Amino acid sequence: MQNSTCQAVGECRVPEHAVLPQPLYREVVQFIESLPQKEGHLVTVLHKAQSVFGYLPIEVQQFVADHMEVPLAQVYGVVSFYTFFTMVPKGKYPISVCMGTACFVKGADKVVHAFKEQLKIDIGDVTPDGRFSIDTLRCVGGCALAPIVMVGEKVYGNVTPGQVKKILAEY
Q1: Structural domain includes residue 158
Q2: Deepest of 47, 117, 124, 133, by most Cβ within 10 A of its Cβ?
Q3: Percent of the chain scoring above 70 in pLDDT
Q4: Is Iron-sulfur found in the keyword set?
Q5: Is the overall model pTM greater than 0.85, yes or no?
Q6: Is residue 87 in a domain?
């Protein structure tokens, strides 16, 4: 662990200038300590960290690197390689539109456009109130329901641009 970047807080070492809440760091440390071994579990730990923090900024990546005893470059390499990891904050209700072949052919691009118009943001952005963000996915494996939209973990199938306003109203 790099003492120059961490400050002791109970059983957990958080970055000295941590912007994110300290209890969240403790949750990640407890998860790491529950593993039978650290080796081979970096992706699992990053999933946990992202579920706890909502995203993986460099501060969290350094924290994970320190506690997993791996170089920051290795953590960054994993985070930047896999598309399910994000280094930027998402909205409270992240919207993901599938752009796989079946979804695209059935109008997913028009659905994306409708979300962008309703929320007045672009892909990758977050609404000013922090409620929504929009991203696209390659394929979610539900081609029979194309086009598919996910809001958080909730899946919507056969979505049309006309349904976008109703979907947003649920949140």
Answers
A1: yes
A2: 133
A3: 89
A4: yes
A5: no
A6: no
Structure tokens at 50: 């992202």
- With vertex at residue 168, the alpha carbon angle to CA 167 and CA 169, rounded to the nearest 5 degrees, is 90
Binding residues for [2Fe-2S] cluster: 98, 103, 139, 143
- Angle 152-154-157 (CA atoms, 0-180°, nearest 5)? 125
How many separate domains does the chain show? 2
Residue for token pair 């080796």: 39
In the annotated binding site, the residues are 98, 103, 139, 143
Q: Tell the residue number behind the tokens 């929009």, with chain if given.
A: 134
Higher pLDDT, 13 or 117: 117
Q: Over the range 19-35, which residues count as b (16 or more CB within 10 Å of their CB) and which as e?
A: ebeeebbbbbbebbeee
31 and 74 share a domain? yes
Same structural domain, 72 and 112 = no
Domain that holds residue 51: 6-81
